[in-house]
Structures are given as C-alpha cells and as structure tokens.
Design a protein that fits this description.
This protein has about 950 residues and is mostly beta strands. It has no helices and 59 strands. It folds into five domains: about 450 residues, Regulator of chromosome condensation 1/beta-lactamase-inhibitor protein II (Methylamine Dehydrogenase, Chain H); about 90 residues, Immunoglobulin-like (Sandwich), CATH 2.60.40; about 100 residues, Sandwich (Immunoglobulin-like), CATH 2.60.40.10; about 120 residues, Immunoglobulin-like (Sandwich), CATH 2.60.40; about 120 residues, Immunoglobulin-like (Sandwich), CATH 2.60.40. The strands form twelve sheets. Strands 52, 53, 54, 55, 56, 57, 58 and 59 form an eight-stranded antiparallel beta sheet that branches. A seven-stranded antiparallel beta sheet has the order 30-31-34-33-32-35-36, with no helix packed on it. The protein has a seven-stranded antiparallel beta sheet with strand order 45-46-49-48-47-50-51, with no helix packed on it. This is Regulator of chromosome condensation (RCC1) repeat protein.
C-alpha cells in the first residue's frame, strides 16, 4: 500500500531481518561494524510485503527485498511460490536496478517501483510485475509477469519527463510525470481495470480495461496546477493539486473518481461511480487548509489537513475520512458508510498531539501522533488504529473490531523509540521504530495475518496470527533478539540470539553482565554451545555464585553497547550436599537432606514445584527389587519412604533433584546407603483385657490381654520385638502408671503379617491397696515405659475397667452345670451353657439386663479337649438367665450360653476342662463331654 509523507522530512530507515537465511546473507557482505544499511521504503501489499534499502548510504535505495504471497509472481523472483523469508529481487539478467530506487508500491497482487537511472534525483524508469489480468502491468497485454519489467507509454521509449509519483490500486495503476522538468508533476497516466471508471478517461466501464498507459485530464482539460499527490484505492482514484501561484508543493484541491458504492468519492452520494475526475470538498464548502497527507485504500479515503503551515509543531492538523464503514474503519463510532469528508477524532476528541502520518489498509485505518509538541520534533510516539481486526492486525491482542481510534502499544507495552512510518495491508500491519533515537528507524514491528508468510519471520499458513505488535527485524548492531540465562553446576551461563542477519558482526562479540549493584561480570565464550551462523552465542559468566541465592541483572553489555533488561532476576540452583536415614520404623523410613551449603537467603519455596522435585531410587536387597519415589521438597527437607517391608534390607542407590526441562539436573554425590527396617511393633488388642477376678487379693490381681504382631525368637523362648520381662503398663483414670509383671502366654493364632503371631498374656499387677472396699479404675494399657518414652503409645479401653477388693470379686464356674445343646451342633460349631456363681452386679445394672463388676461374658469362655488343645467361645448376647442369689453375700448366680466356632466337619471332640481365661492354672475339670460335628 502506497505511503507518501509529503509534508514530513523523509527519514532514512535502517532495518535487518530477525531470521537468518542464505537468501539474504549476501545483502552486504563487505559492511563493517558501525556502517548502516538504510531502508528507504517499507510497503505492505494485500498479502505480500517489501523493503527498499540503501546499502551505500548515499541517501537513495538500491536494493529490494520481498516476501509473502506469490501466486501471480508479485514477489518478482521468477516463480509463483510463496516466500516466508525476505528474498532479494532484481530485474531478470541484471545485477542491479541500474540506478537509485525512488518510489515503491504494492497492492492487490501486483508490485512496482521507479528508478532514477541518470542519478539526478528524479525517477525516469518504471518497473512492474505480478498480476496482469486487467492490464495493470501496462505492457499492452493481460499476461502475468513474474520478474520486474520496464513499462513505458505505447510506442514510447520513455515517459517524456521525470516520474514524480507512482501508486497501485487493486487492478489499476497510475504515475504522475513532470514533463517540463520544474520539479512538479503536470501529467497523469492511468491504466488497468476501468470497471468502475477508476481510470478517469470517461471510457468503457464494466469489463473494460486499458492495458497501456492513458493520459488523464479533468473535463476542463487542465488540472489548474501541479499534481502533488496520487493515490489509488481498490477501485477508486484521487489526486491533490497545488493551485497556489507560489507553488509551495502542498495540495489544496482534491479530485476523485471511480467506484462510489460506499461513498468513497466523497461527493455526498452513495452508489454508482464517476468516470472522470470531479472536485471534492467537505460540507463546509472549503478545506480550510493545505493537504499534508492523502491516502486511499479499499473503499475508503482520507485526507490530512493543516490549517497553518507556519506552525512547525502542526498542532492544527485535522483528519477527514469517508467511504466504506462496514467494520468501523471510518472511526466515527458507527458501522454506517460516510459519503462526505468527515472530521475524525478519538472518543475524547483529542489526539493528544499532532497527526504526522495516515495509513489505510483493507477495511482498517491508522494514524501516528507526536504527543511531544516540541518545535522541530519530527517523529511520532503514539499509534492509533481502528476498523477490521479479523486477524489481529490492529495489534491490541484481540480479534475484535474497533469503531473509534484506539491507542495501540506493542507486546512489551511501550514503543522502544520513535515511530517513523506505518504501512497496512489487507490483514497485516507494519510499523518502523527508531529504537536508539538516532533519527534513523532500525526496528520493524508487525502484527496480523501470516497465512502467506507476509510477516517475513519464516511463518507459514499453519502459524497463528500475531495479535500484538512484535519486533520482527532490527538493524542495531548486536541488538538482542532474545536472551536466556542458565545455571548448571554452580556456574551461570547466558545464551544470546542477536539480530545480525546482515552480517555486521564479523568477530565474536565481547559480552559483560552488570547486576543491580553495579558489579560487572566478564564472560567466556563457549564455542561448542554457540551457532554463529544463526547468530546464537553462548557464554559462561565468570564469577563465584552462591547456591540458592537470587541475583538481579540490570543490563547486558555487547561490545560496549549497554542494553537494559529491566531487573532480570536469576535464582541460582540450590544444592543438596548429602543425606542420611534419620528415622527407621518397621514399614517406613525418613531420609533427611542436607541443604546447609546454600546461601543465607535460601528459601526452597522460591522454586517451582518441578524444581523442588526430588527422586529417590532405592532397592529391596532381600528381593532385589528396585523402587522410585518422587516428592516435592518442602522446608522440612525430609523424604518419607512408606510401604516398606518389615525386617528387610534396603539400599538407597541414588537421589536426583531439581527437575527442569524434562530431566533432573543434579544427583547427590554420595555412596549408596543401606538400612534395615525394624520388626513390626506389637499391638495390644484393646477389648481383650479381662480381670481374672478370683485372682484378686488385698494388694494384687491378675489379668489377661491379647497382644498381636509378635515375632517369636529362634528358640521360641521369647519374642524378637517384645521383651516380656519389661511387662506392661496399666493406666488409671488419674493418668497414673502401674507396671505389671509377666506370668504366662499362650498362642492364639496367626497375625495378618507373615511371620508374626497373636498371643494371649497373663500379667500380675502388684503394689495395690484393695482393702476396705478400695476401688481402682483403669482406662488403658501401654507397652511403652512412660518414664523413658516421650510420647508413649496408649491403647484405651472402650469402657473403664473397675477392680475392687477380693471379698466381693471372686467368681466361680459351676462345672457340673456344663451342658452342650445337641440341637445346636453344626458342621463347624456348637453351643453350650454354664452357670457362674458370685457375680456382682454393677450399680447401674439390674437382674434381667445384667452387667458385672467382676465378669465380662463378652471375653468368652475357654474349653480344653483331651489333646490339650483349647477353644475360645463367644458369648450369645442376651443369653444371661438369672438363677438366684450367689454363695457370697451381695452376689448373684447366672447361666450363660456360649458358642464354639471354627471346628472341623465330621470330627469328634472330647472336652475335659473349662476356664474364664486361657491360662493353665485357672482351668477346672468338667465331666468329659464328646461332640461330633455334622458332615457338610
């Protein structure tokens, strides 16, 4: 799209391509550091882009680069293949353009430029290439051309003067010529499609086209002055004329013609078209100033007016717009077409400075504004955009259309320098920035559609659109494209990707790093990690860096050029120097990690969850099985291994830590460590506790309790995990402890853990005072000595156990009352009854629903057979039957029913003894009674 800033000093522009390619490595292989490559014009076509460059700093362009869509040969490289990187373009069979490139224009599917071959500062030669379906190339045919081709009027070898201005519409083309060589254009040539009268010669419309240049004049036959600006939209055309006698070079009369379907002619009508140039004025009847910028594109028109050219700051600039407003591109807050020039402002009616440039794209618009109203300030610093945003071409991070001018900033939230130029395509936008404020643009930002590679960054049709402006190219020698710091093995590294596609850097750059305290670190170049061809340089930062500390980098100094990176923080990796097994239990172990070698300010919580990840690798040596456990380290610096096997040998083979980029960066440098898990701790079965009531004396009593998870020693004289000589501890309601003495034990059965068993024990508690009806109330038991254990493990009873004086507590089994119920015998069980004397009812109990101080039927009754094997029975609930008063005053006699389970079918059992506890001294003889279980 054409861009002429007629009232602004043309600024030389420097640019480099942010991605290297052999296609443009030869741009200037002899350039030296400090020399500049100057961009003269940047253009965005509908779906292609181009740059003209001054490689010898003579003030004129001599080189052209193009990229993007190329289906009609509009790139000019003799192919029809899209180009995703900038490539150098030359006329066929030529080494250069034969002079200085003066003007450059892209639109639709066509490209063109003008050249000054006699080096007098004025163009005299026109090159065209690309689409020619409507004769827009101007060579008298409608055949596309894929390389630049010289164009002249029919039967002429030149234009009869200097080419002053040149522009492309979608399918039509125009140039203005200075025939009398006074420096101002006086003749207009047009060619290409005339479907809507856009040629302006009152010729055939509809399918009509003119494949050769035609001289165009208004109906009066004369323009009435010098032709200043020529601009072409998709299907409409306009010129500005300087009719002043002083010929100041600024237009003051506007002619328009061509398509008017959306009011883009500006004559207060909508529809139809004008086949000849007509003068256009605003509704006020006068423009009230001179024209400093004129721009057409799509079906829209714009004109920038200055009411006082003697005001150097141009504070009186006024923007007029009209035409298609389908996407809000007029900027008046609506989507209604506008058929007369209308003043446009932001919503607050204040541009915040002076407008210096206007650019229109396909259904979207832009201006750049200088908010600094200093005298002689010739650069803009603020960008406004509005209209269609389908591809993110407005650069505001969305794809939502904007109906009013809206301030736009790039992805980093500020323009790094002055805005010198802007050009819009049909869905992509480009902005040139003077990054280092040396009055020369050096960086190109782009946003929007990249379907054909028109952003020039190597993208393709599968790439996402750029929704915010990002720096694509830059020419500042050694300017950072991006950087990344790395930390490994107590060394800090930095990788720099530099923008040096032009090969300005011929030696390895000298790099220094400065922190926020002003300390400067030297660096050492690492050749093996660098890729100089791709401008990627890798350095080790020389210095001693403390582990686990944060360092703040203020700037990177490249060959003496300091670039601020805005307090970039680097957190050095923490170190785990060693480890030890701090706690070993039967089924778990705790590993403690040593992080004391990190800095004083170290905080593990400053790292990401991944970076805090630790992986411990360990082996069950008994089974030769390897395991891994991953944990996120917290400030306890411990790892707990669970679900270990009891009495098992383990080895910690290695510990890895600091997970980053898919792997662990570090391993603790330490030999493997072995440990053995402990035996399973014994476990008291709480509700198995029972007082042996007839054992109660004035100062002692015996009781039974079941202890599970016991492991007998090799000779079965004791247990590996419990020393019976330590006894057991009773705890009363006042939290007093009483050590009980071991008397006897009997095996009950297997534990749930292999190799461990369940036993019933008899203990004696001495040292009591049970005289005078004294009572002890016990609440729990513990295997831990409370005087040597910080937090003893106590097993509490469901209900407190009361022990009273012996004269009220002795019970008696009436052995001759033992009866087996024949009708209860099954294949694996039977029921029996037994009477018990001297039972003392609890205070809150009654005869029909008894509970007793000296007997708990739920503890069951034990039978012993003639093979000396015992069987525990279960109480049948609510089976207690009151018989009468007991033999001792204040006691009662009851009959109870119990059930023996887990017998073998079709087997004969003869029972000879009975007891309330499974302890040899307490068994009493009964009349031998035989039972045969049923068959299955």
């Amino acid at each position: 799209m054409k861009k002429i800033i007629s009232a602004i000093t043309i600024i030389p522009i420097v640019i480099a391509f942010g991605y290297n390619s052999s296609n443009y490595k030869d741009l200037n292989e002899n350039v030296k550091l400090g020399e500049k490559i100057v961009l003269k014009d940047f253009e965005a076509g509908d779906f292609h882009s181009g740059i003209t460059i001054d490689t010898d700093e003579n003030g004129y362009a001599d080189t052209l680069y193009m990229w993007g869509r190329n289906d009609k040969g509009q790139i000019g490289n003799a192919t029809a293949i899209n180009q995703f990187y900038p490539i150098k373009i030359l006329p066929q069979n030529q080494n250069d353009w034969g002079g200085n490139i003066i003007d450059f224009s892209l639109n639709g599917l066509t490209s063109g430029l003008t050249v000054d071959t006699n080096l007098d500062g004025y163009a005299d030669t026109l090159y065209m290439w690309g689409n020619n379906s409507k004769g827009e190339i101007g060579d008298g045919t409608i055949k596309n051309t894929t390389t630049p081709k010289i164009i002249t009027p029919t039967d002429q070898t030149n234009w009869g003067g200097n080419i002053i201005d040149f522009d492309l519409g979608y399918n039509h083309t125009g140039v203005t010529i200075d025939t009398n060589l006074d420096g101002y254009a006086d003749t207009l040539y047009m060619w290409g499609s005339n479907q809507y009268g856009q040629i302006g010669n009152n010729g055939t419309t509809g399918t009509g086209y003119y494949p050769s240049p035609q001289i165009i004049n208004p109906e009066s036959g004369t323009w009435g002055g010098n032709i200043v600006d020529l601009d072409l939209g998709y299907n409409h055309t306009g010129v500005t004329i300087d009719t002043d006698s002083i010929n100041d070079g600024y237009g003051n009369v506007l002619y328009m013609w061509g398509n008017n379907s959306n009011g883009q002619i500006g004559n207060e009508t909508t529809g139809g078209f004008s086949t000849t140039p007509i003068i256009v004025v605003p509704q006020s009847g006068t423009w009230n100033g001179t024209f400093i910028d004129f721009e057409l594109n799509g079906d829209d028109s714009s004109l920038l007016i200055n009411e006082n050219l003697e005001d150097p700051a141009r504070t009186n600039n006024t923007l007029y717009m009209w035409g298609n407003n389908q996407y809000g591109q007029i900027g008046n807050g609506t989507e209604i077409d506008v058929s007369t020039p209308t003043i446009i402002t932001p919503e607050n009616n204040d541009w915040g400075g002076s407008i210096y440039d206007v650019s229109l794209g396909g259904n979207y618009s832009s201006v750049v504004v200088n908010s600094n109203e200093e005298i002689n300030e010739q650069y803009a610093d603020t960008l406004y955009m509005w209209g269609n945003n389908q591809y993110g071409q407005l650069g505001n991070g969305t794809i939502t259309n904007l109906l009013t001018p809206t301030m736009i900033t790039p992805k980093n939230d500020q323009w790094q320098g002055k805005i010198t130029d802007i050009s819009l395509g049909n869905g992509h936008s480009g902005i040139l920035i003077d990054y280092n404020n040396d009055s020369i643009a050096d960086t190109l930002y782009m946003a929007g559609n990249d379907a054909y590679g028109q952003l020039g960054n190597g993208g393709n049709a599968s790439d996402d659109n750029l929704l915010e402006f990002e720096a694509i190219f830059s020419t500042i020698p050694n300017i950072l494209n991006n950087y990344q710091f790395y930390y490994l093995n107590n060394k800090l590294f930095v990788q720099l990707n530099l923008n040096d596609a032009l090969n300005v850097i011929n030696d390895i750059p000298s790099i220094k790093i400065k922190d926020n305290n002003g300390k400067i670190y030297n660096t050492t170049f690492i050749d093996g990690r660098s890729n100089i061809e791709e401008d990627s340089y890798y350095y080790r930062i020389d210095g001693d860096f403390i582990r686990g500390e944060e360092y703040t980098i203020d700037s990177i100094i490249i060959d003496g050029y300091e670039i601020n990176i805005e307090d970039y923080s680097i957190l050095t990796d923490y170190i785990i120097s060693d480890y030890w097994v701090s706690i070993i239990n039967s089924t778990d172990a705790t590993i403690s990690l040593n992080l004391t070698q990190n800095g004083e300010a170290f905080d593990i919580n400053n790292y990401t969850n991944d970076q805090r990840q630790v992986k411990i690798n360990y082996t069950n040596l008994d089974l030769n099985t390897t395991y891994h456990k991953k944990v996120t380290l917290d400030d306890s610096y411990k790892i707990k291994l669970n679900n270990l096997s009891i009495d098992t040998n383990y080895q910690i083979t290695s510990i890895q830590y600091f997970y980053e980029d898919g792997s662990y960066k570090y391993k603790i440098e330490q030999d493997p460590m072995t440990f053995i898990t402990k035996s399973q701790n014994p476990s008291i079965i709480a509700n198995s506790f029972g007082v042996i009531n007839y054992s109660i004396t004035n100062n002692s009593f015996n009781y039974s309790v079941e202890i599970d998870n016991l492991k007998p020693n090799a000779d079965e004289t004791g247990f590996e995990n419990y020393d019976v000589n330590n006894g057991i501890w009773l705890i009363d309601q006042n939290n007093n402890y009483y050590n009980s003495t071991y008397l006897d034990s009997n095996l009950i059965g297997y534990s749930s853990i292999a190799g461990y068993y369940d036993y019933e024990f008899i203990f004696q508690q001495n040292g009591l005072n049970l005289e005078n009806n004294n009572t002890y109330i016990f609440t729990g038991l513990s295997l831990d000595n409370p005087f040597y254990t910080e937090n003893p493990e106590i097993v509490y009873f469901d209900e407190p156990i009361t022990v009273e004086s012996s004269e009220n507590s002795e019970i008696s089994l009436i052995t001759d009352s033992f009866v087996i119920f024949e009708n209860s015998i099954t294949s694996n069980s039977f029921e029996f009854s037994i009477q018990i004397d001297n039972l003392k009812l609890k205070d809150n109990s009654n005869i029909n629903n008894p509970t007793f101080n000296n007997f708990n039927p739920y503890n069951g009754i034990f039978l012993k057979d003639d093979s000396n094997k015992y069987y525990q029975s279960d109480y049948i609930e609510n089976s207690a039957i009151y018989i009468g008063k007991g033999s001792i005053e204040g006691t009662e006699k009851y009959q109870f029913t119990f059930k023996v389970n887990n017998l073998i079918p079709n087997t004969e059992y003869t029972f000879i003894e009975i007891s309330t506890i499974n302890y040899e001294d307490y068994y009493q003889s009964i009349t031998p009674t035989t039972v045969r279980t049923d068959s299955i």
